[in-house]
Amino acid sequence: MARTRSSEAHEKVIRAALALFGEHGIEAASMDAIAGASGVSKATIYNHWADKEALLMEVMLYVNGANREARDVDTGDLRVDLATVLSWRPPGELEAARVRITPMFMAYAAVHREFGAAWRHRVMEPRRNALMRILARGVERNLLPADLDLDLAIALLIGPMLYRHVLSKAAAAKLEDIGPMVAETFCRAYWIGGATAKKAARKK
Hints:
The protein is an all-alpha fold. It has 2 domains: 5-49, Homeodomain-like (Arc Repressor Mutant, subunit A), CATH 1.10.10; 69-197, Tetracycline Repressor, domain 2 (Orthogonal Bundle), CATH 1.10.357. The protein is built from 11 helices and no strands. The chain has helices spanning 5-24, 31-38, 42-48, 52-64, 78-87, 95-111, 113-140, 150-166, 169-174, 179-190, 193-203. Helix 5 (78-87) packs antiparallel against helix 10 (179-190). The radius of gyration is 21 Å and the shape is elongated. The relative contact order is 0.10.
């Protein structure tokens, strides 16, 4: 299906805004500058987005691939399921742009609290909910303790991933894909299935 002029203009604005946000910062990139860089009139831009924050939200959803992420994972293997969610990344061609703009975005969201809350709801909550479902299934299947504090478990799983983002690029590169390691470490600490199986084997 051929792309419409409207969809082409939409993508041009997204890409122009992403470039300007990354180069000049979010606050400094005006809608006039975005219009000039994209070749799309400001009137047309405002037909697509109510304001710059609405555009910024879509830019961040775009570089994080939020609309492409699977909502649930259930392979039957607790470690694999956790690692899959923790290691998920957007398409590779967007990685450099995402790494560049994320620190600016985090600073912006910290100052603009309502926007930050909307972002967490749109992007962070789906990932958190996916982990919550995996952990709840682990409890139901007697792989994890019945009294597992799910909120604490989520913090233990997500914490290392967030830590990786605040490291320098050189340090972060050494921890490029720590999802499987985090999942393995968590399961070693909390997984009761293996311990139960070993005890049963010893009794035999």
